[in-house]
Target: tRNA-2-methylthio-N(6)-dimethylallyladenosine synthase
Amino acid sequence: MNEQQRKQQSQIRQTDNPTDIKSDAANIERLKNTSSDDLITKYFETTYEPPNLSKARKRGRDDVEVHYDFGIPEDMENIGEGKKFMIRTYGCQMNEHDTEVMAGILSEMGYESTDDKEEADIILLNTCAIRENAENKVFGEIGHLKALKRENPDLILGVCGCMSQEEKVVNRIMKKHPQVDLIFGTHNIHRLPHLVKEAMFGKEKVVEVWSKEGDIIENLPKARKGKIKAWVNIMYGCDKFCTYCIVPMTRGKERSRLPEDIIQEVRHLTAQGYKEITLLGQNVNAYGKDFEDSDYSLGDLMDDLHMIDIPRIRFTTSHPRDFDDRLIEVLAQGGNLLDHIHLPVQSGSSEVLKKMNRRYTREEYLELVRKIREAMPNATLTTDIIVGFPNETEEQFEETMSLVEEVGFEAAFTFIYSPREGTPAARKQDDVPEEVKKQRLYRLNELVNKQSAESMKQYKDKVVQVLVEGESKKDPDVLAGYTERNKLVNFKGPQSSVGKIVDVHITETRTWSLNGVMAETAAEVK
Model:
């Protein structure tokens, strides 16, 4: 689509020349008695339309276009020569992948990556909106960067990602953090060269946040970390609207990439020597449900990828409601399709699941687990669990504990419920004391730790295949990597093993990791 269409679709009411309220004497006179909150609101009338839950729930089936013509504008191709950028990432794998794209774009503009904020010319904070704690960390970092901006006025400081899709966040930045030069969201990352240009040469703070999701942009450059494992995004957005989750508003509706584009990317990564890919989506196994002219699903995609000569293929994150029999059938083929399955349950109580709008019951989840176990007896299951959802009773929490035991999860990401403004759950009155929630989390973590430690014991004195990623974080003399079932293994071996799959004999098991030595009778390093 052309520039005019993009502006019409984006729902950002932005003029070509926003009024400069700092220098326009007439505006200053007219607005001098206006409260700061009203002034912020007036400013946003021309720059920003916030996500709207009601609109999001009613969002239509607008066609999504696929574009293959991304390129750096000619006048920005070498703008970063001799300059450096730093991107600090918060949140999920999708945010990590978005950072790889932004780093790729900036690199093509001539910038060089750095981990030292003191030498950076651009600093971007790629944010997460899932939990309040992540938001607090970002605002803390913005505060810390104020002194750096004062010392280096030419520094471009930007906030992007999911937090930028929230009206209250942008209002707060505009009101309290003038050191921030650039704000953009999750749908317009491909616009980064244009946004940097505006931040460098424009007089205004640059705010471009699309409330309506954009199209699918292919051929975006990516600066991936390392040459061993790679993220491959297969879809965007989520249509589930769990009552506690802000993602449908920050990431938009579900949009699937075309199968041929995904397969081509995986083939390209395989040719580059990558050993493992992880297919990404906010709700990855809803892949293909938005295709109107075919019934091609995640199971079909995995079946096609199964034929590619890459050692390992994973996917995350699944929603139990969309985990169908076709996917189970394909995964049961094994080979490079790994049987470590992350399957967030969130609660073991059907009543709580209904309040969460998860659209499955405890019994339906357990039936899905039964099907997976029947097809893949050795499958490793991990999950996400929220404790302390508004008005969760002790009996409902005990249902979660019993489900964790019954399924036998080998790991879990566990959280106390965090209300997010703009979600239905945030409006609920909650009669569960915070101390009770903390006690429940402690008890749940004790159980998960116990099950994890127990599951590790099966590997004692066994030989496992480890994809070696590099040195251990705790000991540079020790190598570290992961098994097919995502178990961390630390062992001593030659540096030449990095990036390869080697056999390791397990000598010691711990709660969350395994220790071992390279097997004397191991097959030749692959």
Summary: Residues 1-51, 521-526 have pLDDT under 50 and may be disordered. The domain at 219-458 is CATH 3.80.30.20 (pyruvate-formate lyase- activating enzyme).
